[in-house]
Design goal:
This is Glycine--tRNA ligase. It catalyses: tRNA(Gly) + glycine + ATP = glycyl-tRNA(Gly) + AMP + diphosphate. The protein has 500 residues and is an alpha+beta fold. The chain is built from 17 helices and 24 strands. The strands form 7 sheets. Strands 4-10-11-17-14-13-12 form a 7-stranded mixed beta sheet. A 5-stranded mixed beta sheet has the order 21-20-22-23-24, sandwiched between helices. Strands 1-18-19 form a 3-stranded antiparallel beta sheet. Helix 5 (106-119) packs antiparallel against helix 6. The longest helix is centred in the N-terminal third of the chain and has 20 residues, at 43-62.
């Protein structure tokens, strides 16, 4: 067989179309023309996303004896968001074009211009623009931001004009009321991040679990942000899912643990199949006032390198603010001895945070797995064939194995169903006898199934089957009794965990 040839680069539209057609991601409430920046996960998408969440959860709570998990409520006391700074400072700088009536994020317009400079080889010019933007936003000089947009000749993509309004700060939190009677209801917010649920439970977990610093608390949960300019499919949504871990440490160990988690988290992304050449660190030029260090792990999407995870040294900002506003001490008593032989005593722990977007990780995994190849024909006069498949890590694939009888008659179908049923308790297995077996292979390729098990007439004689491997399309003959162990090993989460 001739070697497959590389196909043209994948576009975001390729990803969106494939995700919808094969049951991974659908526009939400599509029969009513959808809702911007809101999506539903289909039957295959929910399996892939759940597998990614399981891999993250096990990597955190199973590989580390000093990390435990919680599941905090979405609704929280409104003062939580006052203490965290979200009420006063969780804003995006918005600007409108008077001619097109379209609204944009001012920082994204400037970042887009910086990307143009970078592509043109003017990296210094790009960096100077980003630095100036950071300075203006840090000084809350919104008029300066508007003037910078105009001076850079950044026009509205629709109207092609510079007729911009002033820049305004727009708070991203969704608000609602709690209470049975409107007059007696109280204003609360849908949480814009999951981290605060961890911080307000710091002492509950520490005391009930008898946890010793350093220790971490992990959580997976939904968060909500009223993104005005949502784009790039599921990369930026109004309802999304976060996988966060807050690691509580002694104040003088912040840099050590920041560096440690920075390396550990990059290993995780490589372990699930994201290639090293598509991953990079991006250190924050502008730090939050409470942070001593911050870095993003970026993945190369079809639309460029973008953040999938952030690692931040947050200091004691969150616990200290909650202590001040709640009047409840958020301190830890450390009986261990310091270098002078004295107990460390009471202190507010510092925090190193790791925060990865489950939806962004899904999109990165999906984009990386989407493979389009041209397979040269071995027969003269016949056209080359195009092959599309999802090259997912076997442990992440929605379906691990498909059992395919060669034909429905002569007992092959019944034999195939029996094999599928014997494997279902070990890993997700489907049975498919509809259509030519070649088309059934293709169906499984398109959703990323790593193994197809063909049942033929020889199976009826010696209880052997053919395993077809998705990526190489090679086949091997094995005994039915070997299937559970052979495939089970390849699709186990252990293969991911042992690589971290």
């Amino acid at each position: 067989m001739s070697q497959p040839a590389a196909a043209p680069a994948t576009s975001l539209q390729d990803i969106i179309s494939h995700a919808k057609e094969y049951g991974f991601v659908f526009p939400s409430s599509e029969i009513y023309d959808g809702l911007q920046a809101v999506y539903d996960y289909g039957q295959n998408g929910v399996e892939l996303k759940n597998n990614l969440k399981t891999a993250w959860w096990k990597a955190m709570t199973q590989l580390h004896d000093n990390i435990v998990g919680i599941d905090a409520a979405i609704f929280m006391h409104p003062l939580t968001w006052k203490a965290s700074g979200h009420v006063d400072g969780f804003n995006d700088p918005m600007i409108d074009n008077k001619d097109s009536k379209k609204r944009y994020r001012a920082d994204q317009l400037l970042e887009g211009k910086a990307e143009e400079y970078t592509k043109a080889g003017e990296t210094e010019k790009a960096q100077n623009l980003l630095n100036e933007m950071g300075r203006l936003l840090g000084a809350e000089d919104l008029e300066g931001v508007r003037n910078l947009i105009i001076s850079e000749n950044i026009v509205c993509p629709i109207s092609k004009t510079l007729n911009w309004t002033e820049v305004r700060q727009f708070n991203l939190m969704f608000s609602t009321q709690v209470g049975s009677v409107a007059e007696d209801s109280s204003l609360i917010y849908l949480r814009p991040e999951t981290a605060q649920g961890i911080f307000v439970n710091f002492l509950n977990v520490q005391k009930s679990g008898r946890m010793k610093v350093p220790f971490g608390i992990a959580q997976i949960g939904k968060a909500f942000r009223n993104e005005i300019v949502a784009r790039q499919f599921i990369f930026r949504m109004r309802e999304f899912e976060q996988m966060e871990m807050q690691f509580f440490i002694r104040p003088d160990t912040s840099q050590h643990w920041y560096n440690s988690w920075k390396e550990t988290r990059l290993k995780f992304h490589k372990a699930i199949g994201l290639p090293a050449e598509k991953l990079k660190y991006h250190d924050h030029e502008k730090l939050a006032h409470y942070a001593s260090a911050a870095v993003d792990i970026e993945f190369e999407f079809p639309f460029g390198f973008r953040e999938i995870e952030g690692i931040h040294a947050r200091g004691d900002f969150d616990l200290r603010n909650h202590q001040e506003l709640s009047k409840k001490k958020q301190q830890y008593f450390d009986a261990d001895l310091d270098e002078n032989g004295k107990p460390y005593g009471n202190y507010i722990p510092h925090v190193v945070e790791t925060s990865v977007g489950a939806d962004r990780l899904f999109l990165a995994t999906f984009c990386n797995a989407f493979t389009k190849e041209t397979i040269p024909s071995n027969e003269e006069g016949k056209e080359d064939k195009e092959r599309v498949y999802l090259k997912l890590h076997p442990a992440l694939a929605p379906i691990k194995a498909a059992v395919l009888p060669l034909v429905k008659k002569d007992g092959l179908a019944e034999k195939g169903e029996a094999i599928a049923n014997s494997l279902k308790s070990s890993f997700r297995t489907v049975y498919d006898d509809g259509g030519a077996i070649g088309k059934r292979y293709t169906r499984q390729d398109l959703i990323g199934t790593p193994f197809c098990i063909a049942v033929d007439y020889q199976t009826m004689e010696d209880d052997t089957v053919t395993i077809r491997h998705r990526d190489s399309m090679t086949q091997e003959r094995v005994s039915i009794s070997e299937l559970k162990e052979k495939i089970g090993y390849a699709v186990s989460m252990e293969r991911i965990l042992e690589a971290i």
